[in-house]
Amino acid sequence: MIEASGKNQLVILDRDGVINQDSKDFIKSEKEWIPIPGSIDAIASLSNSGFIVAIATNQSGIARNLFGFKELEAMHQKLHSLVSKAGGHIAKIIVCPHGPDENSDCRKPKPKMLNMLIEEYGNSSENVYAIGDSMRDLEAAFKAGVTPILVRTGNGLKTEKNLPSKFSKIRIYDDLAKAAMNMIKA
After folding, report:
1. Is residue 101 flagged as an active site residue?
2. Residue of 16, 22, 41, 175 marked catalytic
3. From the CA atom positions of the chain, what is the Rg in Å?
4. pLDDT at 17 over 80
5. H-state helical runs in 121-175
């Protein structure tokens, strides 16, 4: 079980494969953005239990000219709307729009996006959780000094099979709903 230290604890979520279904062809529009069952209610439950919920997501489809900021904003408006209708709140969504070959300092596995959220919400890194489905999410969490959590949705099953020893004690859940339930119980 995850040890929570009370209200206003920050949880940083990856987007594709954690909150919504992922695609090797990228999620390029609001129509293609489909929540994973239980993820919207999980976000609402976390926020209603005193967690600050933020999202840090690589979106290289922008750099690849597969979609633009207008389409990205429509996807995020849909996400905000669904979470709001479920009674929850997302504090912030930050995006790295760069491609993997651009050597951007904000692209996960680099920890810049996580560090920005930690600084903004006044949490020490020891009291922050980062939930992802890929090795780059876990690496960013590790580098930022936060507690990484793996979900088996998206790329999570593949990631779980190839975990390096430094992640041998990582908490792994079937999906965001199960991770949230355990965080709230703590």
Report:
1. no
2. 16
3. 15
4. yes
5. 135-144, 156-161
Q: Which residue has the tokens 């429509």?
A: 74
User: Residue 144 corresponds to which tokens in the numbers above?
Assistant: 């930022």
The burial class, CB within 10 Å (0-12 / 13-18 / 19+), for 178 is: middle
pLDDT for the residue 86 = 98
Quote the CA–CA distance of 169 and 65 in Å, as a whole number: 39
Annotated catalytic, 41? no
Average pLDDT over residues 28-48: 98
| Separation in Å, CA 90 to CA 8, 54, 124 | 13, 6, 20
- 104, with CB counted inside 10 A (0-12, 13-18, 19+), is middle
| Cβ–Cβ < 8 Å for 77, 83 | no
Which one of 14, 41, 133, 137 is the catalytic residue?
14
